[in-house]
Recover the amino acids of this structure.
């Protein structure tokens, strides 16, 4: 699909009604009005640009204000001139990005990023541009990633909307294009390919064939991008309201082969003799269901990155553990164990925080535990262990396990749901009686040392773990009974 780009729709004039709506949105912000006046008085242009304009256009006619977050402004003033214009007006400024022409500022709670017109060149070996100042707003917009981000609104008195590449038409048609050739845009900055995936989820855009072809042909260039930046884009995609279509593009284009190869590996071949569900489609459905449960829970944070990663990756151990059994059956024994190891390896490579890695791996490891519950035959001890092993992940584990039931057999689905209802009911009953969320041995470390006549050390830890297991097995014990069990354990150990 490489080669010449498709013919591009001509950029039509922005309708007067849209111009007026955007003017009104800009005028809602006193900070932007004042910024425009300060720059105009000094003889400089200033334009609201990028995602801020895109989101303002999306909000046009809805009565909404400008979107939250940093507001991006572009100008023909050089960085040192920008700093001079902000002096005495902005509450604070920062210049970490000044080498790239960007000055940050905070004015009465509004954060601004003001960047000088640029006409960058890329070496196409890294994603770092050779910064060159530009003199034209249109040239500055031409270097943007997508047409929907290549629009600007003047902060001067006229408030003109500039849309040289048809971004408004693309936004209305929910179409994702690049201002120039897609292959050139992605070669300049391969991270834009993951941004394309994100915009499918975030904005509901559909990439044109040229963009899809460039994604497919150039996916290997993602290796030029640092893991931290890749992880940030992947997370932003997962945190959207409906990421499934974006993830399907992520996989079909080959980008996932570079970033998250365990996901496309779930598309295991299914022959006519060895039947099992499509694990890849199943995983996307589990993600859909987990998001629905997460958003329906008033007591849970949403969006929940840990739950969504676990829903997407919970079965990644299946390809390595698939075995063909007699009579056409297929097994995936211990795929939760293998999957937890793969989760740790991949998420660590993507530089996810250690806590996120461990939580997702733990949920992956535990997601099959419920299926041993059968029809409620678990002892109270087994229920306690289920709760204790899950710890503060228990609410997420509930959602993951329920989401994992994707069978189309209504009777089986109803039976699984009723069985899990039963487990949650037993957990609630035991929690009310025993405070399962804080299960501790019936004797603390000081009491253990006093009873056994020992000092701090490894033996205290061993005794503590013995009492913890005893507590899980038998429930709360009175102090005398716990002491008797501890002395008997100590004597047998000696």
């Amino acid at each position: 699909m490489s080669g010449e780009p498709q013919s591009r729709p001509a950029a039509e004039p922005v309708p007067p009604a849209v111009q007026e709506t955007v003017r009104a949105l800009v005028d809602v912000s006193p900070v932007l009005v004042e910024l425009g006046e300060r720059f105009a008085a000094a003889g400089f242009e200033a334009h609201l640009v990028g995602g801020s304009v895109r989101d303002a256009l999306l909000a046009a006619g809805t009565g909404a204000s400008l979107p939250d977050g940093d507001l991006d402004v572009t100008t023909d003033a050089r960085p040192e001139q920008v700093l001079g214009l902000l002096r005495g007006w902005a509450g604070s400024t920062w210049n970490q990005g000044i080498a790239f022409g960007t000055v940050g500022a905070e004015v009465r709670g509004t954060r601004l990023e003001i960047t000088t017109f640029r006409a960058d060149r890329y070496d196409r070996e890294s994603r770092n541009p050779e910064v060159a100042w530009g003199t034209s707003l249109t040239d500055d917009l031409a270097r943007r990633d997508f047409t929907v981000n290549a629009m600007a609104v003047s902060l001067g008195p006229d408030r003109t909307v500039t849309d040289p590449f048809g971004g408004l038409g693309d936004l209305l048609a929910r179409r994702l294009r690049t201002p120039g050739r897609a292959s050139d845009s992605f070669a300049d900055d391969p991270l834009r390919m993951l941004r394309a995936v994100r915009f499918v989820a975030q904005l509901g855009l559909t990439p044109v064939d040229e963009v899809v072809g460039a994604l497919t042909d150039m996916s290997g260039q993602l290796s030029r991008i640092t893991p931290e930046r890749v992880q940030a884009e992947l997370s932003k995609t997962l945190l959207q309201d409906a990421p499934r279509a974006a993830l399907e593009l992520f996989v079909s284009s080959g980008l996932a082969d570079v970033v998250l190869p365990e996901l496309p590996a779930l598309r295991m071949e299914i022959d006519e003799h060895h039947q099992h569900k499509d694990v890849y489609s199943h995983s996307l459905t589990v993600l859909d269901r987990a998001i629905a449960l997460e958003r329906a829970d008033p007591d849970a944070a949403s969006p929940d990155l840990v739950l969504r990663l676990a829903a997407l990756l919970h079965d990644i151990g299946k390809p390595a553990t698939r075995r063909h059994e007699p009579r056409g059956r297929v097994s995936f024994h211990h795929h939760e164990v293998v999957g937890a190891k793969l989760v740790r390896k991949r998420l660590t490579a993507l530089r996810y925080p250690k806590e996120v890695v461990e939580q997702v791996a733990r949920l992956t490891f535990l997601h099959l535990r419920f299926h041993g519950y059968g029809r409620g035959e678990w002892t109270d001890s087994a229920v306690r262990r289920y709760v204790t092993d899950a710890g503060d992940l228990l609410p997420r584990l509930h959602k993951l396990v329920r989401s994992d039931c994707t069978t189309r057999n209504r009777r089986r689905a109803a039976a699984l749901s009723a069985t899990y209802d039963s487990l949650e009911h037993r957990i609630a009953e035991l929690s009310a009686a025993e405070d399962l969320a804080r299960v501790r041995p019936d004797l603390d470390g000081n009491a253990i040392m006093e009873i056994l006549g020992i000092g701090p050390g490894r033996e205290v830890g061993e005794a503590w773990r013995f009492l913890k297991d005893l507590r899980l097995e038998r429930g709360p014990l009175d102090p005398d009974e716990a002491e008797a069990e501890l002395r008997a354990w100590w004597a047998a150990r000696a």
About this structure: The CA atoms of residues 5 and 210 lie 6 Å apart.
